[in-house]
Amino acid sequence: MTIRDVARAAGVSTSTVSYVLSGKRPVSAETRRRVEHFVAELGYHPHAGARALASKRSHIIALVVPLRTDVYVPVMMEIATYVTMTARKHGYDVLLITNDEGPDGIRRLAASGLADGVILMDVELGDERISTLGELRTQTVLIGLPDDPAGLSCVDHDFSAAGALCVDHLAGLGHREIAFIGYGTGIYRRRAGYAERTLAGFRARAEELRMRFLHSSCEGTYESTAGALGHILSDRPGTTGFVVQNERALGPLLHLLRTRGRIVPDKASVIALCPERLADQYAPALTAVTGAAKELGRIAVEQVISRIFASVRGRRPDDALVLLAPTLTVRESTGPVRLSDPS
Amino acid sequence: MTIRDVARAAGVSTSTVSYVLSGKRPVSAETRRRVEHFVAELGYHPHAGARALASKRSHIIALVVPLRTDVYVPVMMEIATYVTMTARKHGYDVLLITNDEGPDGIRRLAASGLADGVILMDVELGDERISTLGELRTQTVLIGLPDDPAGLSCVDHDFSAAGALCVDHLAGLGHREIAFIGYGTGIYRRRAGYAERTLAGFRARAEELRMRFLHSSCEGTYESTAGALGHILSDRPGTTGFVVQNERALGPLLHLLRTRGRIVPDKASVIALCPERLADQYAPALTAVTGAAKELGRIAVEQVISRIFASVRGRRPDDALVLLAPTLTVRESTGPVRLSDPS
DNA sequence: TTGTAGGCGTTATCAA
DNA sequence: TTGATAACGCCTACAA
């Protein structure tokens, strides 16, 4: 089943079939109808390799996923899913690449013409992979935000705004002494953008509003959460607001606050930086600041594709930098400060 | 940078370069060395499309992932990761396909020659996609177990054995009255293999050992977990062992048992069917029955590849059916039954 | 509006 | 042990 079979069946030349399929030159309505009819009837699909060879475009986008498991995995999977669906909508397929291949993997994709573009997930501040990308002629988009995004397009959540939004919400409820419970120290050490930037946004806004605040790292186990809370409450017993960016610490924290008599939300407010699905799942349901994973995936794909188009037309692609605004959803875990009664 | 450039540089013909790379015919040590030298020096990678066109093999495996989100996502991601890494080790790349394309998506992959083989994840008992696969000449492997796996290869965890293993462990500790807390009813209705088969294994073994048992569905929220536990304890107040196959119910359940005075493991034993990482994370750490996700991915890839090889050589591929034995890891949440003291 | 034909980079067959 | 060369299926510039 090749293009010639379709051409013969429809009584036209192969180029006409090709043009009907690509739309790159006008075809009379009648011919187009006949060709499309036989394409459908014969179940014809152009041979991907032949097409890539002749057109110099594979219609494949590579998605590089991290091997690390400290990121909240379901979110990555959700992004990957939306990347795939959006790509398909534009006639592209998605190739999955694990990060362990490193820069060589991307070089291979570029050199073999396997991928027209690359989407790199989980980019870190100071990411050493970024410099390697410049040499290649592959179009690249980052999900994440490196120190220097020159020559690339980037999409990410506006984590800084998310951190600030948490502070604003708590401040608006009258809290004056708050704490940030984040990820384990390893994550800050490797400068994961989502951790570093959220904390920075939190810090800046808290200082701006002259609030007292504390930052505490937490590995996510029950013990480490207990440790973090212990430190906070002994250093700053007056703390009433908790901003939590650590999915695994949420359950333990709620439990610990309860056992310590700090009933949420009457005696303590908790605001989570986590996906909606998670926030909904606790009792009390958590007020949360969230970013839309599907948007990330969609925009990343549209950015690579637009870069690919530009480069095909011989233009230098514009570098885009999109930061998605976070959303605050108020649920049951935050409330106005009540002066602690002496009872 | 094509094969001709390498050939010229090494002073040989293009076919010699090709044969050095593919190893499909003997090449003198000296020539091989020279060719390999220039391949590396020039950073040559064969053009994927051209290769696929000439050889009729794309060296790409398609991985079809479900869109549904009720499966425990990190496990799917882990499988996908290992599929990718194993595939690379064998010189294959992995194309990500979301399930929303349905059978047409797979037809497209086959017809366009984009994929040499397909791995279908999250296959259900009575899966309607299976029948469609027979028509295609693509080699297919299922992760999961359909009612009728004829003409296909399958890999999956031995969920039935896992269910039985839980019963055995509890029985060995002296429990005589146990309960199974599973997923929401929707999952059983669509006959997800991991749910149905685990429960069947649990049932069969419990009956065999003449234990009293109950099955309770649970959506995974705090409320539904409370509901499930409430039913169990009112119907069978003597229940001392809990088998839980529902990641989200674990936290709530532990908390509920504590508040009801059924201290784990002294007054109640809990055994989880979940990944190690999760089991480790609770206090007390959970005794758990687990399957190795990486093995699943690895075996699936090796099965497709072996099928592809067979079909290339004109043989009909053998249908394999591999069920991976589960592992029991005893932690802190299970212990011998203590007769409840009257205090 | 449509057809003809050259070429894309590899593989593999046939010779030597 | 190696080389020349005809496919592989499609795209697209050029003709008509």
Automatic annotation (TrEMBL), chains A, B:
<dbReference type="GO" id="GO:0003677">
    <property type="term" value="F:DNA binding"/>
</dbReference>
<keyword id="KW-0238">DNA-binding</keyword>
<feature type="domain" description="HTH cro/C1-type">
    <location>
        <begin position="1"/>
        <end position="31"/>
    </location>
</feature>
<dbReference type="Pfam" id="PF00356">
    <property type="entry name" value="LacI"/>
</dbReference>
<dbReference type="InterPro" id="IPR010982">
    <property type="entry name" value="Lambda_DNA-bd_dom_sf"/>
</dbReference>
<dbReference type="InterPro" id="IPR000843">
    <property type="entry name" value="HTH_LacI"/>
</dbReference>
<protein>
    <submittedName>
        <fullName>LacI family DNA-binding transcriptional regulator</fullName>
    </submittedName>
</protein>
<dbReference type="InterPro" id="IPR046335">
    <property type="entry name" value="LacI/GalR-like_sensor"/>
</dbReference>
<feature type="domain" description="HTH lacI-type">
    <location>
        <begin position="1"/>
        <end position="55"/>
    </location>
</feature>
<keyword id="KW-0805">Transcription regulation</keyword>
<keyword id="KW-0804">Transcription</keyword>
<dbReference type="Pfam" id="PF13377">
    <property type="entry name" value="Peripla_BP_3"/>
</dbReference>
<dbReference type="InterPro" id="IPR001387">
    <property type="entry name" value="Cro/C1-type_HTH"/>
</dbReference>
<dbReference type="InterPro" id="IPR028082">
    <property type="entry name" value="Peripla_BP_I"/>
</dbReference>
